[in-house]
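Why does residue order matter? Because the sequence determines the fold. Keep that principle in mind as you read this record.
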Amino acid sequence: MRGGSIGLELCRQVARWNPGELILLGHGENSIFEAMLELRETFPSLPIIPVIADVRDVERIRDIFASQQPKVVFHTAAHKHVSLMELNVEEAVTNNVLGTKSVVDAALACSSEHFVLISTDKAVHPKSVMGATKRVAEMIVHDAAERFGRTFVTVRFGNVLGSRGSIVPIFKRQIAKGGPITITHPEMKRFFMTVPEAVHLVMQASSMGAAGDLFVLKMGKQIRIVDLAEDLIRLSGLEPGKDVQIQFTGIRPGEKLSEELWDEGLNYTETEHPDIVRVEENNMMYGETLQAAIDELVRLAHEGDGQAIVGLLSERVPGSVLGQTPPPDLSTVI
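Structure:
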């Protein structure tokens, strides 16, 4: 796991199934420490092993997996903030692409039986570096599953309410200060789901997967961000536009007005769970082609050539529309 909201909730729900042991792996020592304290208090008889490591450290990850021999791996470690990754292209590649390849290879080497990648709706027709790197991560998992016949799957979903760095805590802070609430565009829409609900469906999807499956969680209709903001203002006992103003700041680099959960025209099938569908992805890189793209992306990241990375992602990732917005600056991050 990683010490974020999804990773921690995964640990909570996995722990209820009484596994032989639970390994918490993450780069942030404080997050892992806090997760360990909570889980040991709630599940005192469960062996919990905290491991501090960076998924980009290939040798370290390989050694950890060889030592611990995990049977099931949930991979949630990723840089997720769209606007920040537009400013830190190299970090998006090394964490989301190299990090995923590192963990997948380590899981293959120690014969892990199940691997679950947590992905995002921003990987569909990606307009952002973050979304494009997560699409490559999906390809890495699918390629490994196809080549080795392992139950390695991807679960893709949209925004999670209340997760670390998500929009609701930001809006609450802005309301507490008296406003304004800042929104990029009046027609900005997103899919939303709570953390426990999303993780419950991830667990369900992981139990029904076959090699290379791509599962997408049904998230209902997209919600206008301005409607969410107005509801939060009213729930605070205030009136939108009177007590708290809403200010529109303009779309940030890499953002879309609305999201998609899979590419238009792809086939999908219902599963035994009414809120999960299986998508038949057919436009991917495989084998040597994929490995060559990964090697080139990592090389460019180490050389600090963000512009070349954007060009390569635009060329290799299906449906990508990178580079169609002005370059970011620090004022566009929030």
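The mean pLDDT is 88.
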